[in-house]
Structures are given as structure tokens and as C-alpha cells.
Amino acid sequence: QVQLVESGGGLVQPGGSLRLSCGASGSIVSIASIGWYRQAPGKEREPVAGITRGGSTNYVDSVKGRFTISRDNAKNTVYLQMNSLKPEDTAVYYCKVYWNFKDYWGQGTQVTVSS
81 by DSSP, 3-state: which? Predict the structure, then answer.
């Protein structure tokens, strides 16, 4: 069983920054690809960023140049550094790992960008 716990969300003004954390059980962070997703009110959940086992990263176009995904294998944690935040980044952010033929999701953390 894989458990993921997100943290670091909150209320921030436009142009501000937040760093989200996704803590994982066991050593899953070092051996699996992990992604960050978000779901805004009334919208479908969408992928935001991902990092592979080999360290390759990818981002949705709307966050390229502003968000950075990284991981710390020793801490079993994946991070999402979010800079230059915009009101349209407001959403619940989730991390997800695909492992042993199943998707595992965290409970989500709310990010609100508003003045």
C-alpha cells in the first residue's frame, strides 16, 4: 500500500510563491514516476508536472517557466515549487504515483491565489 500526503498549500497573492510537498511511504519516490495534478472548481483534474524515476521532468504549458518539480529520495518527498502564481492557478493540488498497476493519490492541498 502506498500512502501520499500533500502539504504546503495556502492563500497567496498574485505573483507570490508556494512550495508544495508530497511525502510518500517507503522508498517509492526513488523508484517510481510521480506527478502533480490540480483540480479547479467546476473543472476536470489536469496534470501539472511530472518527474520520472530517471529524473526527467515535464510540465503543462501553462506552468512552464514558473513551476519546478523536484524530489528528495532521502526524505521520500517530491516538491512542486510554484513561482509567479496567478489567480488561474487556484485549485486543489494532488500528487499521484502509478505503482504495481494502480494509481495512488494523496488527499490534496488547497492553493488559492487572490489579492
Answer: strand
Q: Which of 3, 7, 35 is closest to 19 using CA atoms?
A: 7
What local confidence, expressed as pLDDT, does residue 28 receive? 80
Output the pLDDT for position 107. 96
Q: Are 96 and 4 in contact (CB under 8 A)?
A: yes
pLDDT tens digits, 43-64: 999 999 999 988 999 999 999 9
C-alpha cell of 29?
519516490
Q: Amino acid letter at 92?
A: V
Give phi and psi for 86, each to the nearest 5: -120, 155
* Contact between residue 29 and residue 77 where contact means Cβ atoms under 8 Å apart: yes
In this structure, what is the dihedral angle of CA atoms 35, 44, 113, 49, given to the nearest 10 degrees? 20
Which of 37, 5, 10, 35 is CA-nearest to residue 21? 5
